[in-house]
Design a protein that fits this description.
Number of helices: 8
Helix content: 25-40%
Order of helices and strands: HHHHEEEEEEEEEEHEHEHEEH
Radius of gyration: 28 Å
Bound molecules: copper (II) ion
Structural class: alpha+beta
Shape: elongated
Largest sheet: 7 strands, mixed
Number of strands: 14
């Protein structure tokens, strides 16, 4: 029995690696296969940080086993190797304080510079103008608005390859997280707040996008596909969507916004110029109101004051409501 107990770690540990190996077969880890410049830099950062940390982790694991083996009770030599009075070996002290200090120093510099370089709010350097997409996290789907193409889509995003993409992200639901692992970054989607993310796809392809923040019942189906295609393909697609699909107005939006997942992607031509601002304003407005456009409505404010849109629709009203979201306050 005693002998078997000694063998267990030598069987269990390799077995864990074998099981992980088998489970990972044929699977790829998206963050390790970047398809764009930002994702590539994030991958490098991840690898360098891991390698640096292994400088400490590997010797610690080796020592943990070696020391246990060398100083085991049944080792006849362990008594003569034992030096309880040994104290203050300057060289050893230098090793176990010095190495971690150097690593923390190097990591600090790496993290400091890369968190400025990879700031999701920072526009990417490029001679091409950024392609704009407005992202709304809904219960439980993603809405993409293309303000310049006058179209919108649900759970399917198309972007031009080789051109920076500027995402404006908000939520019309609980807090969520917008994430395309192969393009990099991950930014929170919050109601009444506009967050920004700049990404680029350097190669054509279809990538998975998901929500990285659990938000309720339909969360598991709240994923989308991202297709990086040539600018001309994108223009042709956008033209087709504008002509052949139903219009997404403020009114039809409120139907779409009902909780629920969608089976397959949906496409719309944009029926209003400022849908995104209207969604944002829904949570910023002093009284707060639904995203619907009644011809005339008024809001009672907490202070007893009241404002009236008169003949303006809420839609028109909010078009001249300047939405200046704060930068990230986390
Ligand atoms: Cu209003």
């Amino acid at each position: 029995m005693y002998k078997i107990a000694k063998i267990i770690p030598w069987v269990v540990i390799p077995l864990i690696f074998v099981v992980i190996g088998v489970l990972m077969q044929g699977k790829s880890i998206a963050v390790l296969q970047p398809a764009g410049q930002i994702a590539a830099q994030q991958r490098d950062l991840l690898l360098y940080a891991t390698l640096l940390i292994l400088i400490v982790v590997i010797p610690v694991f080796v020592l943990a086993f070696t020391i246990a083996w060398r100083y085991r009770e049944t080792n006849p030599k362990s008594a003569e190797r034992y030096h309880p009075e040994l104290d203050g070996d300057k060289r050893m002290e230098a090793v176990w304080w010095g190495i971690p200090l150097v690593i923390i120093g190097v990591l600090s510099v790496m993290i400091w510079t890369s968190s400025h370089n990879l700031d999701p709010y920072k526009p990417l350097a490029s001679n091409k103008e950024a392609f704009r997409v407005q992202v709304v996290a809904m219960k439980y789907k993603w809405l993409f608005i293309y303000p310049e193409q006058d179209i919108a889509s649900v759970n399917h995003l198309k972007i031009p390859v080789g051109r920076p993409v500027e995402f404006d992200v908000t939520s019309d639901a609980p807090m969520n997280s917008f994430w395309i692992p192969r393009l990099g970054g991950q930014v929170y989607a919050m109601a009444g707040m506009n967050t920004k993310l700049h990404l680029i796809a350097d190669q054509k392809g279809t990538f998975r996008g998901s929500s990285a923040n659990i938000s309720g019942e339909g969360f598991a189906d709240m994923h989308f596909s991202v297709e990086a295609i040539s600018p001309s393909e994108l223009n042709a697609w956008a033209r087709g969507v504008r002509q052949n699909n139903e219009r997404l107005s403020v009114r039809s939006y409120s139907t779409l916004a009902r909780p629920g997942t969608v089976e397959s992607p949906r496409y719309y031509s944009l029926g209003t110029d400022n849908l995104y601002d209207t969604i944002l304003a829904k949570y910023m407005h002093p009284g707060g109101h639904e995203v619907t456009a009644p011809a005339k409505h008024s809001h009672k404010q907490s202070g007893g004051r009241q404002h009236d849109h008169g003949s303006q629709s809420a839609d028109e009203y909010h078009s001249h409501t300047k939405v200046t979201p704060e930068k990230e306050h986390h």
